[in-house]
UniProtKB/TrEMBL annotation:
<feature type="region of interest" description="Disordered">
    <location>
        <begin position="372"/>
        <end position="391"/>
    </location>
</feature>
<dbReference type="InterPro" id="IPR013457">
    <property type="entry name" value="Rhamnose_iso-rel"/>
</dbReference>
<feature type="compositionally biased region" description="Basic and acidic residues">
    <location>
        <begin position="373"/>
        <end position="383"/>
    </location>
</feature>
<keyword id="KW-0464">Manganese</keyword>
<dbReference type="GO" id="GO:0019301">
    <property type="term" value="P:rhamnose catabolic process"/>
</dbReference>
<dbReference type="InterPro" id="IPR036237">
    <property type="entry name" value="Xyl_isomerase-like_sf"/>
</dbReference>
<dbReference type="GO" id="GO:0046872">
    <property type="term" value="F:metal ion binding"/>
</dbReference>
<dbReference type="InterPro" id="IPR013022">
    <property type="entry name" value="Xyl_isomerase-like_TIM-brl"/>
</dbReference>
<feature type="domain" description="Xylose isomerase-like TIM barrel">
    <location>
        <begin position="72"/>
        <end position="249"/>
    </location>
</feature>
<protein>
    <submittedName>
        <fullName>L-rhamnose isomerase</fullName>
        <ecNumber>5.3.1.14</ecNumber>
    </submittedName>
</protein>
<dbReference type="GO" id="GO:0008740">
    <property type="term" value="F:L-rhamnose isomerase activity"/>
</dbReference>
<keyword id="KW-0413">Isomerase</keyword>
<dbReference type="GO" id="GO:0019324">
    <property type="term" value="P:L-lyxose metabolic process"/>
</dbReference>
<dbReference type="Pfam" id="PF01261">
    <property type="entry name" value="AP_endonuc_2"/>
</dbReference>
<dbReference type="InterPro" id="IPR050337">
    <property type="entry name" value="L-rhamnose_isomerase"/>
</dbReference>
<keyword id="KW-0479">Metal-binding</keyword>
Amino acid sequence: MTDAEHIVDRLSRQHIETQSWGYVSTGTRFKVYNTPGTPRDVHEKIDDAALVHRLTGVAPTVALHIPWDRVDDYAALAGYAQEQGVRIGSISPNLFQDDAYRLGSLTSEDAAVRKQATAHVRECVDIMTAVGSDRLSMWIADGTNYPGQGSFRRRRRHLEDGLRDAYEALPGHAEMILEYKFFEPAFYHTDIADWGQSLTLCEALGERARVLVDIGHHALGVNIEHIVATLLDRGRLGGFDLNSKKYGDDDLFVGAINPQETFLIALELVSAEDDADAAVSAAARSILYKIDQCAMIEDKIPAMIRSVTAMQTAFAKALLVDRDALDRRRVEGDVVGANEIVNDAFETDVRPLLARVRDRLGVPADPLAAYRESGEQERRNAERVGTPAGW
Ligand code: PSV
Ligand code: MN
């Protein structure tokens, strides 16, 4: 195989998970705008995910968030997804929208609240079994708003106990991916604020707990690709929540604000996939790439297509980097030369390469144009009358 064929081959195997809540109307705390054609229930969210997969060929799974996607019969829901051409992917519990969680969920001082939270996570583990999901995607919103409000160490112990309960209940083939976020909804401290907090919890739990990096969950200026490299080298990077941001946790579609950052993250990923250390490369090859974006004013399906194709673009450019030459220049101390190699790849127009990938996958060369011409949006606008689904 030539280098170009290798790249086409790798890109044809790319797998990006879209998320059910990315297809519905969400917004800021000021206003939620509805757009026409928005799904009214989980089946219609799955329909939209299936459409994105049909158009891109690389989005075969859809993440669910419980209770937003709660149904009576999960096996039937998995069957429905399969009929549409997709599978159900990761399951996210929701530990932030019940009145009981005002002072914390797994970290609460109240044993009854902690019990409610662990019972909900167990419900999600059962759903994983019913739908055949292999990832429990955990984000804990717990934190405090004022100095003195909580005991950091007692909260941390409760958190570890609660996470262990879920970890030990996981189906044999499954793993937990543990997200961090430094603020919001709490504004003084968050119990899992950064990658170090998450990593130490994962290490305490066991091999099947890995860190989830949400691109929007870092302070401005933080070097995310460096965090990614550190976690990759320890075999503890388990997943991504993909989006982009200008300021805080903006949840804009991928590549909209800083495509160079997305590319530099992808470069760390493809290089770890080829690492000589088998454990590092196996861990890198089993990362979940999940979109976690919110369509606040834009149409949801095209926004999702943009994110999926932005991830393809980032990986295509990362795969073009001549990593042997790059390493030589690093060793030689050729600062400008090393940067030039990275930059050359970033500036390459990879659209012809992606057209070859799409040809291989049997999908349209331009998924967004194909979507606009398909009439799918107009059909949805006409059919989906009534209350749209939301949070
Ligand atoms: C929190 O901001 C987060 O990124 C978590 O992943 C949630 O599950 C998701 O957003 C949905 O609100
Ligand atoms: Mn997230």
